[in-house]
Design goal:
Layout (H helix, E strand, L loop, with lengths): L4 H31 L8 H17 L2 H5 L6 H46 L6
Helix pairs in contact: 1-2, 1-4, 2-4
């Protein structure tokens, strides 16, 4: 588990944030902003739907990794999507409020905490 820490930080903290927050969330926010008239900066009415939709995609995107650990039962799918989407909402809010670097640090920090918990013997799967 600890040996994969650099991969988790780099892929999760950087790549997923580039793809999902900077890529998908920005695109969804732009579409919402244009649909709302595109006059001023996108407000909460545009940003929250973009954050939530991106967070759901983020949660769904974790299903292949969970499928590698065992069968995808309905409760497992709901748990995986929901728990990852909660993180995705937090990272999306950080991106909206404090830009990409904040979302990356928050995401990487989550992996640091999870690795720390697993080293202490807490099972996270």
């Amino acid at each position: 588990m600890v040996a994969s820490a650099p991969v988790r930080f780099l892929y999760g903290g950087l790549t997923e944030e580039l793809l999902l927050r900077w890529g998908l969330m920005s695109a969804l926010a732009w579409v919402g902003w244009r649909a709302a008239g595109g006059v001023s900066r996108p407000g909460p009415d545009v940003m929250w739907p973009a954050i939530v939709l991106t967070a759901l995609v983020f949660g769904i995107g974790h299903l292949p990794a969970i499928a590698g650990l065992g069968p995808l039962t309905f409760p497992t799918v709901i748990r995986t999507v929901l728990l990852n989407a909660i993180g995705g909402v937090v990272y999306g809010w950080f991106f909206w409020r404090w830009h990409l670097e904040a979302a990356m640090l928050a995401h990487a920090g989550t992996h640091v905490a999870f690795i720390g918990l697993s080293v202490l013997g807490f099972a996270l799967t």
